[in-house]
């Protein structure tokens, strides 16, 4: 998200009993980088080229906004309701998958380890998350733990680069069809909020794979996901805010060195009316005089 301030907005400031306009330069604002890493690959362009690229982007965003208005006017709320027992596909991994909608990272990308990973298409035409997991530490005196690989979806956006959410509030279960190698993986649901204190809020649950040549269908209730922030499990748990899902991801970090392989067919959602549980973990209130709560 960018914060802009037009240079022609003036503020009248009283200084030494004299009113004079002050122009706040646009360089006072910068792009918010939530991941904490500097974007070294960003190319510098001339102002003329930036204007050309901006006009092209404006044309594209106006088209997206038009499609949003049409969809909002023609959408039938009755037909959009989930049917019990029916799996609604959220992501299908096949040969036509757009890898630009996914981000693959590992500890070696940030000079924090030696693990590598890729997201590609398998010989059977399904999504393939594979690589090599290594817990070997980098000898810099700073990194204490290593050995992780993960991929996650990018945050959905509306027209004009407005942040949006996946609304899964009508569903109770996450359904996946996968074929693994016997490792345990971690499913991550991102629920980043507006304020920076909520940028790292995530919900996790384990994905156990059997290995072998057979596919498996994993059906996980959203009530089983537990909340973490910056990798730490929170004492005060809460249900997953299904109307504010920002990303979905899978992490390989079971501390077992060697290659890993996870084949994915689809990720879907299902409604089970008989499932009444909202959170499988204790919901309690601590006294107000406890620090931090």
Automatic annotation (TrEMBL):
Subcellular location: Mitochondrion
Biological processes, Gene Ontology terms: mitochondrial electron transport, NADH to ubiquinone; mitochondrial respiratory chain complex I assembly
Keyword DNA damage listed: no
Coiled coil: 48-75
Acyltransferase listed as a keyword: no
The entry's keywords: Chaperone, Coiled coil, Mitochondrion
Top-level taxon in the UniProt lineage: Eukaryota
InterPro entries hit by this protein: Galactose-bd-like_sf (IPR008979), NADH-UbQ_OxRdtase-assoc_prot30 (IPR013857), NDUFAF1 (IPR039131)
One of the record's GO cellular component terms: mitochondrion
GO molecular function: unfolded protein binding
Pfam families named among the record's database cross-references: CIA30 (PF08547)
Start and end residues of each NADH:ubiquinone oxidoreductase intermediate-associated protein domain: 93-264
Family that this chain belongs to: Belongs to the CIA30 family.
PANTHER family: COMPLEX I INTERMEDIATE-ASSOCIATED PROTEIN 30 (PTHR13194), COMPLEX I INTERMEDIATE-ASSOCIATED PROTEIN 30, MITOCHONDRIAL (PTHR13194:SF18)
Protein name: EOG090X091L
Organism: Daphnia magna
Taxonomy of the source species: Eukaryota, Metazoa, Ecdysozoa, Arthropoda, Crustacea
Gene: EOG090X091L
């Amino acid at each position: 998200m960018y914060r802009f301030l037009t240079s022609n907005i003036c503020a009248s400031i009283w200084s030494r009993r004299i009113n004079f306009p002050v122009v706040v330069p646009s360089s006072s604002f910068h792009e918010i980088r939530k991941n904490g890493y500097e974007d070294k690959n960003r190319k510098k362009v001339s102002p003329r080229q930036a204007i050309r690229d901006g006009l092209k982007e404006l044309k594209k965003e106006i088209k997206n906004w038009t499609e949003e208005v049409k969809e909002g006017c023609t959408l039938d709320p009755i037909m959009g309701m989930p049917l019990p027992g029916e799996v609604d596909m959220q992501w299908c991994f096949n040969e036509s998958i757009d890898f630009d909608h996914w981000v693959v990272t590992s500890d070696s990308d940030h000079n924090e380890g030696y693990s590598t990973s890729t997201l590609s298409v398998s010989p059977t035409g399904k999504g393939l998350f594979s690589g090599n997991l290594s817990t070997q530490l980098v000898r810099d005196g700073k990194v204490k733990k290593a050995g992780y690989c993960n991929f996650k979806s990018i945050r959905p956006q509306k027209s004009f680069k407005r942040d949006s959410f996946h609304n899964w509030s009508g569903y109770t279960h996450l359904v996946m069809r996968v074929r693994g190698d016997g490792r345990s993986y971690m499913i991550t649901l991102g629920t980043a909020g507006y304020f920076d204190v909520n940028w790292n809020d995530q919900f996790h649950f384990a994905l156990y794979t059997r290995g072998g040549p057979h596919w498996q269908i994993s059906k996980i209730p959203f009530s089983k996901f537990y909340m973490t922030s910056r990798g730490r499990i929170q004492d005060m748990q809460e249900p997953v805010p299904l109307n504010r899902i920002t990303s979905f991801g899978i992490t390989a970090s079971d501390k077992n060195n060697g290659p890993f392989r996870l084949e994915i067919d689809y990720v879907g959602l299902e409604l089970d009316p008989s499932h009444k549980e909202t959170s499988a973990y204790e919901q309690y209130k601590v006294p107000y005089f406890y620090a931090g709560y």
